[in-house]
Amino acid sequence: MFRHGMTGGWWCGTGGFFPGPLGMLASILFWGLLIYLAVKIGQSIFFSGQKGENLHNDNALDLLKKRYALGEINQEEFEKIRREIRE
Questions:
Q1: What confidence score (pLDDT) does residue 17 get?
Q2: What b-and-e string marks burial along 43-71, b requiring 16 or more CB atoms within 10 Å of the CB?
Q3: pTM for this predicted structure
Q4: 25-78, pLDDT tens digit by residue?
Q5: Is the confidence at residue 1, as pLDDT, over 50?
Q6: Residue closest to 21 by CA, chosen among 30, 29, 13
């Protein structure tokens, strides 16, 4: 009545990895999840530097403001360095 094994039929669905009548749906969800995770990992690897650059610039500008407030640099130096940071 039912076939057993990976030969197809009711147990495995058409092209499915998981047994049962919903095997094909489970397979599609499985592969969709795998692709989604691969894309997210790729984004975190390749686009993480952009966030870090902005954070670095913000920290540099905060440090520059502190140095100006403490009187370590004058206004001309402050403006010159600020322009360099923003470039």
A1: 64
A2: eeeeeeeeeeeeeeeeeeeeebeeebeee
A3: 0.40
A4: 888 888 899 999 999 998 888 876 555 555 455 688 888 898 899 888 999 999
A5: no
A6: 13
3-class state of residue 37 by DSSP:
helix
DSSP characters over 58-84: HHHHHHHHHHHHTTSS-HHHHHHHHHH
The answer to whether the beta carbons of residues 82 and 64 sit under 8 Å apart is yes
The sign of the torsion formed by the CA atoms of 18, 19, 23, 24 equals positive
What pLDDT is recorded for position 54? 52
Cα radius of gyration (the chain): 29
| Helix/strand/coil for 3 | coil
Positive/negative CA dihedral, 43, 47, 51, 56: positive
Q: How far is CA 28 from the centre of its chain?
A: 23
